[in-house]
Each structure stands twice: as structure tokens, then as C-alpha cells.
Amino acid sequence: MSAAERRVALARAALTVVDRDGVHAATTRAIVAEAQMPLGSFHYAVPSRDELLRDVVELVVADEGDAALAGLLGEAVDPRDAIRRTLTAYLDHVRAQPGREQAMFELTQYALRSPELDDLPAEQYARYHALAAEVLTAAETHLGIRWTVPVAELARLVVTITDGVTLAWLADRDDAAAERTIDLATAALAPFAASA
Amino acid sequence: MSAAERRVALARAALTVVDRDGVHAATTRAIVAEAQMPLGSFHYAVPSRDELLRDVVELVVADEGDAALAGLLGEAVDPRDAIRRTLTAYLDHVRAQPGREQAMFELTQYALRSPELDDLPAEQYARYHALAAEVLTAAETHLGIRWTVPVAELARLVVTITDGVTLAWLADRDDAAAERTIDLATAALAPFAASA
DNA sequence: GCGCGTCTGGGACACTTGTCCAACTTCGGG
DNA sequence: CCCGAAGTTGGACAAGTGTCCCAGACGCGC
Description:
The structure is a homodimer.
Chain A: H1 3-21, H2 28-34, H3 40-45, H4 49-70, H5 79-96, H6 98-113, H7 120-143, E1 145-147, H8 151-172, H9 175-189, E2 193-195
Antiparallel strand pairs in A: 1-2
The structure holds a DNA duplex.
């Protein structure tokens, strides 16, 4: 097994640990235990723990992107329906993997505090915003509408809402309240769609 | 100095440390150093570190409440203006004390991972939602309007938006983008206000 | 003055952490 | 066959952690 293979295996194991027990529990020993490797392998495959966490963040962002794009089901023709379905699909994703979603936030904030990783969050959110913009643009052609405000700005608002909904749900696990918030957000966003 | 006084002093010192260096840096030694106490005083004043963090969370929530209510300036008569002013006031608060705001998120997520504190976040967010509802209701009488959707639901959406805006700004520190998001959110929320 | 409960604080304990190292195995090309 | 590079691994280290303890100081009612 090459050093490069070990590195990606360790990153995956680290994500599993962070998902299950949080960032503060992702010690080198916990990670190698999850990957079923001896401790010595760690610093042979990766220079430092922070370096590995950088890989983990990129792993999370990639996964998040897949989930977001997968939620785009073209069943709805009504823009209102499309918005609600997409937001609900995201909420379902959060409820299915709460640890993963929390890990995302923990990693972002850990990175912000670490001098060697504090450039990551900006990149991470740029990726999210670009992703949301992509989905919104796809929705334009797909639904035969156009957004009456710049897609980039709307994308940021959408990410704002998904982040906020996720945070509140993680805190109180109130499914019904989260769904009502999504309904309300849908009603608030729908007016930005005009028929092309 | 009584044990109770020591405890609140330690909570304040802990918040200072979390604000400056993050939750993971808030060790017992760092906290007593900030409070200028000997290490032995710590476990005389408070049973455990987690117990103190519980105090810190309540401290943060209280501070947050003061900030939210302080932002409610009755200059605007237009509901649209009132919404934008309030959201902008919150953003200003975040920009003035970014560490404090990040500490809030870090504490919430730390609490979620800790078996002895995992009841805190629900309470914390219930307080936020109640606070937002309070502000919204005050706005009704103050502006002579009424909200066309239940205040409790609108309150949750408002907290969702402030949380989301804060997270994104902490990540990329893009002032202009955050303000555009607030403008857009204002446009999205304004239609929920009807003249009473 | 005295005794006792409250407070003080320095030191220690057991444990975990990230990182490193030196010895060991494996294996492909000359 | 052999040798050197790549891979492997158990153990060690220094630093840092939460928590505890005990000898002492203080202050106040009797």
C-alpha cells in the first residue's frame, strides 16, 4: 500500500471519526484505529494532523456537492414546488446524516481558528455558493423561468437559509418546525422567479 | 472572595478565552490565567470544566439578547426599512465581535457532542426564537403593521437568516456580499408585513 | 484569645496528545 | 543473489490535560 493510498484512507477514516465523535475526538490514534493501521503509519503517510484535516474538508465539500445536485429532481414545474422540494431534500439529507453535517460546521470553525488552515473556509463557502448558483441556473432553463435578481446573490441567500435551517435543526431536532421554516422560506423566495 | 463570585469571574474569563482563542483553547489553566487565579481555585469554585461551560453558554445567550434588543431603533416607519436596519445592526454586531459570534457556534456544537451538555442547544435556540418573536411583535405595534404569517414561524426564519449570514461572513469576511444578502433577505421578508 | 469553617494555592497524579525515531520487513532491478 | 529504496511498526518522548489533595491562611462568632 503506497503512501498516497494510505493518505486517502486516513482522510476517509478521519471523516468517519469526526462524523461519529466530533473534531476534538479526531486524534491521530483514533484515526489510525478507525483505519486499522498502526500509529506509525500516520506520519509516514501525512506530515501532520492539520494537513490531513485539510484533506477531510475537501472530502466533505465534495460529498456535499454530490448531495446538493442529487436533490435536483425535475418533477416539479411550479417554481414554488421546485424550491420547496430542493430545500426539503437538503433537510432530509441533514436528518439522514446529522453527524456529517455537524462535522462540516465543526471543521469550518476549527479551520478558522487554526493559522495553517484559516484560508480553507473562504474557499469552502465559495464552492458552496458556486454550487447553489449552478443549481439555480439549471432551474432557470429546466422550469422555463428567470430569476429577477442576480443568481450569485440569490445563491448566497439560499446557502444562508440551508445553513441556518441546519443549525437550528441540529440544536433542537424539531422536524415540524424545520419544515415550517422551509415552507416560509419557499414563500419568501418564490416571488424572485418570473416566467421567461 | 466567595466561591460564587469566583464562579462568575471564571465564567467571564472563560468567555474571554473562547472569544480570543476558541473552545479548544479554553483549558482550566488558560481560564484561571485569564482570571488571574491559581489553578487550585478552579475546582474549588466549580465542580468541573463542563459545568463552567454551561455557565458560559448562558452568559453568551444573555449578551446576544441584549445586542438584539439594542438594535431595535425606532427610526424607520417603513417595515422594509425596519427589517434591513435590524439585520444590518446584527451584522455590525458580528463584525465588531467576530470571535464572540464564532464562540457561540463553537459552544453550541461542543455542547451537542458532550453528553452532559447536549440539552443546552435546544434551550439556547428556544431563547433565540423567543427573542426574535419578541422583536417582531414589538415591531407590529411600533410600525402599525401586522405579520401575515405566525410570528413564531417568522421568528424562526429570521434566526435562520441571521445565523446563515453570520456563518458565511465568518468564513469569507465579505462585507459587501453579506450586505447584498441582507438586502435580498429584506426584499424576501417585507411582503409578510401588512398594514394593520 | 480561640476554634472552626471558609477560602487559598502550590504541587502532584494519571492520562492523553502530536510527533518522531530506529529497527524491521518487503520487493524489484541489476 | 543482493542491495537499496520503499514501506511498516512498536515504542518512546515531551508537552499538555482535567482533576484532586493537603498544608496553610484568613476571618468571625464565642
